[in-house]
Amino acid sequence: MTSGRRGAWLALALLAASLPAAAAAGQDEAVTLRVMSFNVWYGGEQVSLEKVGEAIRAADPDVVGVQEADRNLHRIAEVAGMPYVDERRRLLSRWPIFDSGSGIRSESGASPYSTTALDKSALHAWVMVRPGKVVAVANVHLSSGSDEAAVRLAEAEPLAVLGRLAADGTPVFLTGDFNTSSHLDPAGTRRRGRADDEGPLDRAVTRLLADAGLRDSYREAHPDADAKPGHTWSPGAPHPLRDADANRSRIDYVFTAGRSEVLDSRVVGEVDGPITDVAVFPWPSDHRAVVSTFRAVPVDAPPLVAATPRRVPEGATVSVRTWDPHGPGWTALVVRRGGGPGDALTGVRDMPHDWQRMIPLATLGLVPGDYDVLLVGEDGAVLRRNAFSIAGAGATPAVEAIEPRVALGAPIRVRWRDAPGDLRDWIGLYRAGDADVSRYLGFVYTEAAFSGEASIIPSAADGTALPAGDYELRLMHDESYVVLAKAPVAIR
After folding, report:
1. What is the layout of strands, in order, in the sheet containing 84-86?
2. Of 36, 134, 239, 274, which cross-links 126 as Cys (Cβ 3.0–4.6 Å)?
3. CATH 3.60.10.10: which residues of the chain?
4. CB atoms within 10 A of CB 74
5. ω before 282 within 30° of 0 (cis)?
6. Maximal C-alpha separation, the chain
7. How many whole angstroms from its chain centre is CA 124?
8. Right CATH number for 398-491 from 2.60.40.230, 2.10.260.10, 2.60.40.2840, 1.10.357.10?
9. Is residue 477 within 8 Å of residue 425, measured between CB atoms?
10. In whole angstroms, what is the distance from residue 249 CA to residue 230 CA?
């Protein structure tokens, strides 16, 4: 146990008498939990992934919400020493992570940027902090820009469901780069060279979250905003061209709700920074991070099952992790997507003990395609399912226009397959042969699906329809400009 952890446990003893009655009643079940929010800056490679890992290790978190992982989430987890990863929520954890949904997005149409690839009812993951005990964790990145009402407020509205989740006492933690300052902080701070608005919708995002029952852990730990401003934008480093003094705002947060008590909250950033509590040199991001320590009373875990990785090479192993709260025995079966227990292709039945909750299963003989792993109860009912896919040997990403020639102003329907399935894989429309990968003319996210269909509405910079001509579709990797596949399309 590190000296920081010893201090946290001492703080627990000192705070026990002042905890709310609900938390005090579960004092024996309480855990300490450190939760970090970290925008790593365009894949964490602007300085180095190693420094990103060093920053996470220095903060010593149990769970990290990562923003701008951009195709490097697993590499960041590796350098940070975090064994569990949730790709669709960009969470890293010391403890097992389970999806609160089925592992894929079931809703149709485009989702808000803040909840890409997630159903509205499954924004959080379950983190099992003790055997059979869980807390709920969500992570978001809201859009930048100056229009709080039209953009960020709409993106934040789905997050109110997290407050309702906490209504029964469930500890809930929400990390993110919210790209907006807090209504709890003094007015007049600046972000990216612009003063905060002073109209009725000023800082509406944090007000919405507070109304939903979510508490700002940093400001709860440090109520005096003048003494502890906690600015996360911007450290002004590592590039001296950025004027840190002209860009001071707190836009990165760890919110909490439910049965949780804030013990501490710290800013992680550059060496000799005026507000840095935990320092790393050179600092690897254009944001400082925030890490908060909590005393939380986790709740009993529901039936849970997880299959990792989400995309399994043909013939490779899928790891199945379970929790069946009904007894020590458990059954986990692999079926084709949507199948039932009677369709089992492999798995284990009536595993007689509860000290082995993960089992590796071979996929040898299973054809490429979409599968579910089922947690099955004693009565044969499906308690929970989690999706994964098997990729064919030598499968490579592909994209195509469903109709290679489209009418002027019409949507372009696209189809893709064998994509990586990362959170923000996307398909961009470009002029044929344009060498500038940043000059896309329309785009759509794949919603972290390995294959699927969607539509792009092409438009020029001024919003008008594109002229007739030759264009191309490019399948891009996880909000980066890394091209995975191309296909021609013509506007006639």
Report:
1. 84-86, 91-93, 63-67, 31-39, 289-296, 260-270, 278-280
2. 134
3. 3-300
4. 14
5. yes
6. 73
7. 9
8. 2.60.40.2840
9. yes
10. 8
Q: Is the dihedral of CA 226, 232, 235, 236 positive or negative?
A: negative
Nearest alpha-carbon partner for 403 in 395, 411, 391: 411
Neighbours of 460 (CB within 10 A): 11
pLDDT at position 2, please? Answer: 42
Query: Which ranges of 35-159 does DSSP label H, i.e. alpha helix?
Result: 49-59, 73-80, 153-156
Q: Which CATH number fits domain 3-300: 3.60.10.10, 3.90.1170.50, 3.40.50.2300, 3.30.930.10?
A: 3.60.10.10
Q: Tell me, what DSSP letter sits at residue 148?
A: I
Instruction: Give per-residue pLDDT as tens, 44-53.
Output: 999 999 999 9
Question: Tens digit of pLDDT for each residue in 295-334?
Answer: 999 999 999 999 999 999 999 999 999 999 998 889 999 9
CA–chain centroid gap for 15, Å, is 31
**C-alpha to C-alpha distance for 425 and 443, rounded to whole angstroms:** 10
Amino acid identity for residue 248 in this structure: R
Helix (H/G/I), strand (E/B), else coil: 376? strand
Give the pTM: 0.91
Residue 142 and residue 251: Cα distance in Å, rounded?
A: 10
Q: Which two tokens stand for residue 483?
A: 């091209």
Look at strands 299-300 and 289-296 and give their pairing.
unpaired
Domain with CATH 2.60.40.2840 in the chain: 304-391, 398-491
Helices 73-80 and 49-59, packing angle to 10 deg: 50
Nearest alpha-carbon partner for 97 in 135, 61, 139, 140: 135
Residue 415, number of CB atoms within 10 A of its CB: 16
Whether cis (ω within 30° of 0) applies to the bond prior to 341 is: no
Q: Do the bridges between strand 412-417 and strand 452-456 make them parallel or antiparallel, or are there none, so unpaired?
A: antiparallel
Amino acid at 492: R
CA 29 to chain centre: 27
pLDDT classification of 237: cutoffs 50, 70, 90? low
Buried b (16+ CB within 10 A) or exposed e, 254-268: bbbbbbbbbbbbbbb
Residue 233's closest CA among 33, 37, 59, 47?
37
CATH of domain 304-391: 2.60.40.2840
Q: How far apart are CA 482 and CA 425, in angstroms?
A: 10
